[in-house]
Amino acid sequence: MSLPAAPPSADGPTATAAVDQVARWWAPIVLVVVTLVVFEPTLWSGFVYDARMQILTDTFLHEPANWWNVLTFRVLAMDVLDFNRPVHLASLMADAALWGRQPFGYHLTSILLHAANAVLVWLVVRDVLSHDGGAGQGGDRRAATRSRAIVALVAAGVFAVHPVVVEAVCEPTFREDLLAAAFTLGAVVVAARHVETPGGDPARAAACAALCLLAVASKESGVAAPLVVAAWWRTFRGGDRGRFWPLAVGGGLAAVAAFLAARFALETSPSRIFEVRPLYPGGSLATAMAIEPRILALYAQLIVLPVNLSADYGLSSVRHLPLWAAATVLAGLAAAAVVGVRGDRRLLFGIALVVVPLLPVSNLVPIYRAAADRYLYLPMAGVACIVGSLLDRFIARGTDQVRQMSLVGAMAVVAALAVANVSRQAVWANSLALWEDTYRKIPASFTAAYGYSSALRESGSPEEAATLARRAIDLAGGTRGDAWLALALALDAAGKSAEAVEAAAKAIEVDGRLADPDARVAALAMERDEAEAAKRVIGRIR
């Protein structure tokens, strides 16, 4: 894209304002169009992973009577999947009301929400770049304004099309991450537009607090929202002495604390659905903290070089990152951050937007998945801020030719990420593609072997399904009844009735709950079609 130097006569405030006004319109439009085009393949995908259970099997989303419980947060006291994420449930229920169990509409909603988040990231990056941060843009204000508009667009483009966001966008029940990000970024955008007034702008402060509440009610990682707003205050508005920032941040913290208190006080126990509580990876907090640096180093690698993305990360996923190597990587990143912030304070906010949202999913408390691509969704907004600040600083020091080459090179990187993004979407298009890819990358994953077995059986390959079921049994040491049942169903589909009955009997021996498939469906531990097939095999045992 050509960026010729503007003539000196065009360097006044009027010309700069005109360029800025144009950028306000074309940049977000371009960003939305690019996002929609890149994610178009997902519109035609089916349901995979948890969406099959929550949307196809569970009836909660499809019952209008549940709206009252969700909108009033009464669902916090109910034994319901995602009871602790009422805003997320409301979003899925709206889709259920419009689309029933057809995947197209759910995917459309997620893609539109991601496009909106890309625009929010663009607004945040644009606001970040408006603070000079020591970069300086020379005397040509019109050229500086134009280049910064393009830099903000490129940085937001990294967020919009990076392959690591595919998981959150393409699996509708992972929309919780999109929603938490939308409200967190929205709170930053609202707060950043505050102008100091004697009254303290209480309406805007209340809006920030409300957005923080919606963020944590979308997903627990929304606890980061008021802390991210505080990071903006500390980085760019530290000189403000009015009441707004204490009200906005304090109100957000109070809203988040109140929601979490209600969430844990009202939680149903014991739960029919959450039969097994999450455990620390490795079995203890000490072991988890020895593994966590390797996970964080893996995240850094996935952001810089997204070549081994997976739907299920395990210890084998970080095999190439021993603890000493991971610690070295993290120490290097920390040193680079310190040096970078000293030269450009704008980086401080970008770093905070990466680090703070990762804290709730850093295994300090047990979570069901020790690592996942979707955990990087909001941190990618921080990556966009960092990319924008570094690119802006580099361009500010260069000639017009350097500026043009830098922007063209950055756009080429975004284009390459978009191509990788489309390739990754194909993996999430159906269960067979998803679990084949996951098992190929993480062959030591029980989840991958079990999921691949089920997908092969559904696709009409029972012999291969039986092989993968046996692999899942081996990976679990024979202690998982669901793996034995998967073997029984695969053998039955292959016409090996006697062997199927024997495997089903073993499944019930290992896990007596499998004797009642209907109860397993009610507990959201088995899909309806699988339960019907299981009943046929189990019936022959008796």
Quick description:
The chain is mainly alpha-helical and 542 residues long. The chain has 23 helices and no strands.
Give the total of domains.
2
* Overall pLDDT score: 90
N-to-C CA distance:
73 Å
Radius of gyration: 25 Å
The tally of strands reads: 0
What is the succession of H and E elements?
HHHHHHHHHHHHHHHHHHHHHHH
| Approximate helicity band | 55-70%
Number of helices: 23
Taken as a percent bin, the fraction of beta residues is under 5%
The chain-level structural class is mainly alpha
Oligomer category = single chain
Low-confidence stretches: 1-13
What would you call the shape? globular
State the major sheet: none
How does this model look, in words?
The protein has 542 residues and is mainly alpha-helical. The protein has two domains: 11-267 and 281-427, no CATH class; 431-541, Tetratricopeptide repeat domain (Serine Threonine Protein Phosphatase 5, Tetratricopeptide repeat, Alpha Horseshoe). It contains 23 helices and no strands. It has helices spanning 13-38, 50-57, 67-71, 86-99, 103-130, 141-161, 166-170, 175-192, 202-216, 224-236, 244-266, 285-304, 323-343, 346-358, 379-396, 400-427, 431-441, 446-458, 462-475, 481-493, 497-510, 517-522, 528-541. The longest helix is centred in the N-terminal third of the chain and has 28 residues, at 103-130. The radius of gyration is 25 Å and the shape is globular. The model is unreliable at 1-13 (pLDDT under 50).
